[in-house]
Amino acid sequence: MLESCNVSYNAVLTLQHFNIKTLQFFLKKMSKLTPFHVAVPVYDLEESRKFYREVLGCGEGRSSDQWTDFDLYGHQFVIHLKPRPAEQPAHHFNPVDGHDVPVPHYGVVLEWDAWHDLEKRLKSHGIKFVIEPYIRFKGLPGEQATLFFLDPSGNALEFKAFKDIGQLFAT
After folding, report:
1. Which of 40, 87, 115, 163 is deepest in the core (most CB within 10 A)?
2. Pairing mode of beta strands 59-63, 67-72
3. Domain presence at residue 3
4. Closest by alpha carbon to 105, among 72, 68, 73, 130?
5. Residue 163: inside a domain, yes or no?
6. Which domain holds residue 156?
């Protein structure tokens, strides 16, 4: 079971979850991927550190009084302290599949079982979803599980998983 952002894809790769075509695609793509780096603004560094550490289970790396590095499923995710604006900016939303998707948003494509573990973890922490967990394109190419929520500073996160990772870029 995946309980932490520190678990690599190699640790969850098993033949029982993938057919051979999907396994070949996954290995080819993943062997070329390198960790991304993303930095987002937060208004309260300690509140956000607690959220990413305790709610998402991310390992904490280097930090200062202005920023903190996290291991977000093997990627370098950094929160940077930013003064809270006098007026909170409104989120922009784009309609997708009958849902209002917050823009911008960020997240990680997870393994199917890891996504379900994260869904349970978020619910156990009482996270309010912007878009409740659901399955898109059920039974079609690109079938995927997705969910959206906000961190304490209002940054929108999406985590998704594909039933068949080989369909990640299906058209």
Report:
1. 115
2. antiparallel
3. no
4. 130
5. yes
6. 9-84+94-167
Asked if residue 113 belongs to a domain, the reply is: yes
Q: What total number of domains does the chain contain?
A: 1
Annotate 26-50 with DSSP letters as a single string. HHHHHHH----EEEEEES-HHHHHH
What is the reported pLDDT for 9? 42
Identify the burial level of 97 via C-beta atoms within 10 angstroms of its C-beta, where 0-12 means exposed, 13-18 middle and 19 or more buried: exposed
Q: Supply the CATH number for residue 58's domain.
A: 3.10.180.10
Residues in the chain: 171
Q: Residue 131 forms beta bridges with which residues?
A: 148
Report whether 146 contacts 74 (CB < 8 A). Answer: no
Phi and psi at 21, nearest 5°, equal: -65, -45
Residues paired with residue 66 on neighbouring β-strands, in sequence order: none
pLDDT given at position 30: 60
Residue 26 has pLDDT above 80, yes or no: no
Is 78:60 a contact under the CB 8 Å cutoff? no
